[in-house]
Amino acid sequence: MCGIVGYLGASEAVPVLFDLLRRLEYRGYDSAGIAILNGSILTSKAKGRVDDLISITPEIGGCTGIGHTRWATHGKPSSENAHPHCDCKDTIAVVHNGIIENYIELKDKLIDSGHEFRSETDSEVLPHLIEECYAGNLESSVRNALSMVRGSYAIAVVSTGEPDRIVIARKDSPLVVGLGSDGYFVASDVAAILKHTKDVIFMDDGEIGVINKDGVNVTDLDGVFVEKKVETITWDPESAEKSGYEHFMLKEIFEQPAVIRETFSGRISSDGIDLDAALPNVRRIVIIACGTSYHAGLFGRYVIERFARIPVDVEIASEFRYIDPIIDCGDLVIAITQSGETADTLAAIREAGSRGSQKLGVVNVLGSSITRDCPCIYTRAGPEIGVAATKSFTSQLAVLLLMAIRLGRERRMISTAEMDDLVSGLRQMSGNIQRVLNDAPLIKECAKLFTDADQFMFMGRGANYPVALEGALKLKEISYIPAEGFAAGELKHGPLALIYDGIPVVAIATKDGVHEKMLGNIKEVKARGATVIGIANESDTEIDKYVDYVLRVPDADPWIAPILSSVVLQLFAYYVAYHRGCEIDKPRNLAKSVTVE
Ligand code: AGP
C-alpha cells in the first residue's frame, strides 16, 4: 500500500519518476505526487491517478527527485494529503510508505514548538521532525528523527541544504535501490525499476542509505557501516509490461503456461521433487496467509494431507496473530504470500517463530521482506501487477502440490506408480492450461450473458472448494458483483436459502472422488431455479444434462484439475468485469500489497 520512488542521476528526474510511479501504481492509486530538487524544492501533487498528476505537472527541471503513489490510511484522498510532505520552510521533502503509530503525540509536540501542518496524514510528522533535528547533516537528522518514531516506514528524503543527495530508510516496509548506468533508482519493489536496471540493493530493517553521485552508503540506526550485496534480478523487464494486452490481469492469466513451466523447471524428476528449501519432518503443518494466498493454503491442506498424511491447519494470518496460537517446535508454519510484504502474514510468521515453530515461506517477489525472515520456496510467477492475483495463485497451487508429493515420497506414502502418474500430470499441466486459454472466446461469450447479474454463487467440494472460494473472490473484487463461495455439502445448512429463480451458480464439477455428490448438489440448486454454469472435464458428456452452460477443462488428475478450473474462473471473472466496463487492474478501494494491518 503506497509506493515510494526516487531518482538521482544524469537524466531529467520528472519523466523517470513518472515512469516509476506508473509501475508502482498498483500499490495505491488515490493520489500521487513528486518533489524535485533544483535549488529549491518544487512539488506537484494531485488527487487521483498518476496520469492526473502528469496532466497538471508543469515543466520542472532537475536530476534529483522523489515521488509517491498513495493508498489512503490517515486522511482522505486529496492533493493536500498526497505526498511528498514538506517541513515548514519547504526545504525538506519526504515520501513515506507505512504508518507512524505515535504520530498524534509527535504532532502535538511539534505544533507546540511552532510547526505548521498542512495535511491530515501521519506521514507529515516526518519532515517536521527532520527539520527539528537538522543541524547541517541530513543523514543524521533523519537518523535522529527516526529514533523518535514508532511504526513502519520506507522513506526517501531530499533537502535543499544537500543537493544531489537522497536519504532513504526502512523499517517493516519494502525498499530497494537500483544501480543503473545513468543513475540510482529508489522504489518500493523491484518490478518498478526492472526497465532501468537489474542490479539492486535490498534495504533491510533498521538501515539508512545515503545516495549521491558516487554511490550508495548504507549504515544501521547507530551509524555503523553495513556492507550491502548487489543482487541481480533474473526477472525479464518485459514481464512488467502490458505487452499489447488491454489489462495486466489478462496478460498475467495468459502467462500461466510459461509460469507453470518455470515453477516446475529443474524441480521434477521421477526420482523425486527438488525444492529451494528443506522440508523438515514435523508432526503438524500450519499454513497462514491472506486472501487468494489463503485459498491456496486451503488447497495445500487437501494435497498435503492426501499425499503426505501430515495433519494441516490453515489459518487466516490476521486471525492467527491474535488467537494465542498453540504451536511449538514440532510444527512447521508455512506462510504463503505473493508479495512477501503482507503485514498480517509477516506478523503471523514472526509470531510462530517466537513460539518456537519451524518456519517456511512460499513467496513470489524476489528479495521481499519474508525472504529475510525464513527459508523460502519461490513460486517463480514473475512480476504480478494486476491487483487481482492470477498467475501467483496457480503457481502457489503448483508449489503446494510439489511440496505434498515431496513430503509424501519422503514419508513413503506415495507408491512409485502413483508418483509416475503425478509426475506425468505435472508435466502436462502447462499444455493443459494453454488448452483452457484457447477457449477464452467461449468463456468471454458465456461471461457476457451474466454481465448484469446481481449476485453469484460458486460451489465446489474437496480440492474444488478452495477453487470456488477463489472464483468468488476474483469475481467480486474486479466486477463488484456480490459473490459467495461455499462447500457444496453445506448447501442445505444455509446457502440454499439464497437460491432464487435465475441466480447464477458456478459449480466446479470436474471428475474426482466426490463427483456424484456434486451432481446431487447441482440438482438441488437447479430444482430451485438457479442457472448453473458447470466447470467440467472435456470427456464428461453427462454433465450437459445437469447444467445450463458448461465450461471445459482437459481431462486431468483430480488433484491437478483444480488448477485448470482456476484459470477458467479467472477468465470468467475478467470477462464479466470487462463487459461491465470495470477498471480491472485497479479495483476500487484495493491495493496490491497490504502492508498495513
Ligand atoms: C486477491 O486477488 C488479492 N490481491 C488479495 O486477496 C491477496 O491475495 C492478499 O492481499 C494476499 O496478498 P499476498 O499474497 O501478497 O500476501
Please describe what this structure looks like:
- The protein has 597 residues and is α/β, with parallel strands linked by helices.
- The protein has three domains: 231 residues, Aminohydrolase, N-terminal nucleophile (Ntn) domain (Glutamine Phosphoribosylpyrophosphate, subunit 1, domain 1), CATH 3.60.20; 198 residues, Rossmann fold (3-Layer(aba) Sandwich), CATH 3.40.50.10490; 159 residues, 3-Layer(aba) Sandwich (Rossmann fold), CATH 3.40.50.10490.
- 34% of the residues lie in helices and 24% in strands.
- It contains 17 helices and 26 strands.
- The strands form five sheets. An eight-stranded antiparallel sheet has the order 3-2-4-1-10-9-11-14. Strands 5-6-7-8-12-13 form a six-stranded antiparallel sheet.
- A hairpin with a 5-residue loop joins strand 5 and strand 6.
- 2-deoxy-2-amino glucitol-6-phosphate binds next to helix 9.
